[in-house]
Batch of 2 targets.
Target 1
Amino acid sequence: MQTEVKNKTGMTNNIAELAQEFELKPGQVFGVLDEFGIEHDGSTFEADPDTLELVRDALTEHLGSKEIVLRPNPTPRDIAAALGVSQSDVQKALLTKLKVMATLTTSLKADVAEKLAQLFDSTVRWADAPKPKMGPTAAVNGAARKSGAQPRPPVVTIMGHVDHGKTSLLDYIRKTNVASREHGGITQHIGAYQVELPEGKITFLDTPGHAAFTNMRARGAQVTDIAILVVAADDGVMPQTIEAIQHIQSAEVPMIVAVNKIDKAGANPERVLTQLPEYNVIPEAFGGQVITAPVSAVTGEGVPHLLEMVLLQAEVMDLRADAKAKLEGVVIEAKLEKGRGPVATVLIQNGTLRIGDSIVAGQTYGKIKAMTDYRGEKLTEAGPSTPAEILGLSEVPQAGDRIEIQSDERSAREVAQSRVDDERARTIVVKARGITLRDYRNLIQEEGLKELPLIIKADVQGSVEAVKGMLEKVRNDEVETKIMSSGVGSITESDVLLASASNAIVVGFNVKPEPGAKHEAERHKVEIRTYTIIYELIEDIEAAAKGMLEPKFEEQYLGTAEVRQRLQFSKKGVIAGCYITDGKVTRNAMVRVSRGKEVIHEGRVATLRHFKDDVREVTLGMECGVTFEGWEEFAQGDTFEAYEMVQVNA
Ligand code: GDP
């Protein structure tokens, strides 16, 4: 095997020599060549003297410090893995040395990641950086990568248990920080507003309530950058606090805990801090990464500090948007108002929305007639992180609907209409589209899925613990379960929304879904599986984890039809002119054709027509033209039964 470096002047340089010079193994020399994008064929490479010099530089740098390869926006968890050090060491270095507050899953700015790596005697190479022809890589500057993008205000949601002071806190912040100008005091107009501090702006979504947060996420709209968890100092962690924590953690949104009501006589903020670690929220005071801020929404004590923390967190996240980019926005809330028509509060995430723009929002469309800000003042345009109320939509959109600009109102209408049609087609044709245990089987096998997210509800705390304990142990080489949340009580709408947002399955033991939850599960195609025997539950989940949960199908009768005519068409083949004598026949139905008492064919409907139109179904008393897949030996007087196969354990 040749391992030599040849150059154009005829000088040769042996890889083995380089290896010796730098006290590396030949394989390591090749590794460094790879890292710097210097071509070789695994055994030799050709190089001119300049390149050889750069190879030497590269090797020198390689020896100088350890290099780690990171993708853009790495999290502390990624960095710990790349450095081969513990996550807690990385967090400690972040907090104590760099004064940066971040959860394990917070995306870090490039310069923070690089400083962090330096603390561990390492340098960073960015994975997506264009490979230099030769020579060491300059770190890619995050800002340059997103050219045109400017820092934008963070979008913040406040969550927590009822009566812990979410509304009061929002009110206080609004009153003290929203410039009232000529208005005598502020009355809030829309469900989102912006506050302006000397250090920057913050956009608050005024939709306290976990359903709103998760509902949007379930619809693919992650609008919140930072969540403030409000916990009353006199009350401590309560059920909805836990629920909020689970929602925030599942969304992987950085959390800041506001310990509220510190002015009250019975307030015990310390106790709140000691309660949080149980839910994997480790306050800074205990060496963790979660910032906590004692506040009073009544006296205002601590609120400025809380807002500072929000801005600090936003800075770490390096939130950016480009006012000139293509518009991206989302509906925060919408309603029908007398005399004004559909009114929607939207949040612009990227680009700029202007009066007169033709937009599509989910399945509705329109031309923006008027736009106002949170103070009720007229806007002609709204840029990134700006909440605005818009008028001019044809119908009321849903919270979480994305907004897109179209060239004119007509195309906007067409896009909206095609979405309405698609939705209709989906609900008719597709029975279950969401993730089911059976889907997991496929995902595990085909896409190498590693986690099976579950939400557990049970009748009493004892069963919750038992089910949780057993399910946590379900794992094999390929996959393990991930309990997203667990709790006592029936399956609620909020459980379903969390499941939908995190592609989880809801498992109930000795509990049933509430009617609202059932409805939401159907809407979001979330699978709810309920059990009364614990071993059946465990067995199913084990089978799913093994990718072995076999689907069970049952035949479901649809209807019966009689063949009245054989219609021969040259192009289309033979059509059975039929009459529906019971129920209905659908286009994708399975059929069992009988002549007298004998079944003469089993198969599928290929086409279904009513007069000249292709139709999805025909019902009792209607005539239709049917062709069967790969079979046309029917005769007048034959009858057939239509049915479909429905999965019963999905
Ligand atoms: P929400 O349900 O979380 O929105 O809670 P609210 O903001 O409606 O507050 C519930 C109650 O707690 C109200 O009576 C508030 O006046 C009171 N409250 C809220 N924050 C504070 C606070 O910091 N100190 C005191 N003493 N009371 C507060």
Target 2
Amino acid sequence: MIGIDLVSTGRAIPGNIITNDDLSKIVDTNDEWITSRTGIRQRNFCKEEKNWNLAYEAASKAIEKAGIAKEEIGLLIVATFTPDYQTPSVSCVLQEKLGLPSGIVAFDINAACSGFLYGLKVAASLIEGQDKPYALVIGSEQISTRLDMTDRNTCVLFGDGAGAAIIKKNDNKKFVGILGSEGNVEALGCEGHGSDKPYVYMDGKKVFKFAVQNITKVAKQVLEEADLTVNDIDYVVCHQANERIIRSVQKFLDIPEEKLYINIYNYGNTSAASIPIVLDEMNEKGLLKARAKVLCVGFGAGFTWGGVLLEV
Ligand code: COA
């Protein structure tokens, strides 16, 4: 598969900040428990915004930073498990709101928290035969509408947000990305509105163990396929679900502190949005220099997992 360039990024974080202390007034929890078990200090919940509003803001910023015309975008993929409508997809709503031309390819992907990585690989495989040079890949989530705010096991972990990336095909590069799925329904999920289990449910310990094992494994597989070691990588970006999961992966892969970017402290777990939000923060700080190699790894409900090597 031919490679891609990461052209630009954008993010959207809704304005309603919910601190751990705020949550301690709703459920039996406290700041010390949440920060020591997860690293999370605060998260953002939508007020008026819908999922597509977040996706729109992140996408608009990425398009503006890329300095490209909307007519040059031929593919739009939104990764989400919290769409506004059963159908049409967030992508099609966004296509209309952004004014992207008729005839482009637009659809959503649900691979839960691995969704953005799934989106990158699907985009890389479709972009090859496309006449328009750019693809827009977004992770966007409004998880607050799927949280049981009486369940302290889950409601403290998640947040809303969106991250977007514009990518372009590069014939001189090779795309390295590995995806997988296990087929597990009981450990982590959300049946959605109108069902018996409308809110996120989770067996935290099972998820934790799965996450550490599989992120470590897929990271090694990607490095092997790319014929690289951690020493050759500039940054490792993990799905931001729990700082302790990320620290365990850091230990197993022996990742130096300066190569790891963590921002779960401020956002909680934003599912498919977490990796592109990290990428946008890194971009803003000037960390994604030309030719930087960024290893992105994640996992999510399903269980799904993915690892993608991005070269800026
Ligand atoms: N505040 C206070 N206590 C809480 C709590 C909260 N928000 N949530 C759970 N507890 C309690 C539980 O009721 C349990 O109490 P009990 O022992 O009396 O039954 C106890 O804390 C469990 O504590 P501990 O064993 O230390 O939890 P943990 O180390 O397994 O951490 C998670 C819990 C959820 C933070 C951790 O398992 C985790 O992060 N798992 C992965 C979750 C994830 O990543 N999900 C998204 C995937 S994309």
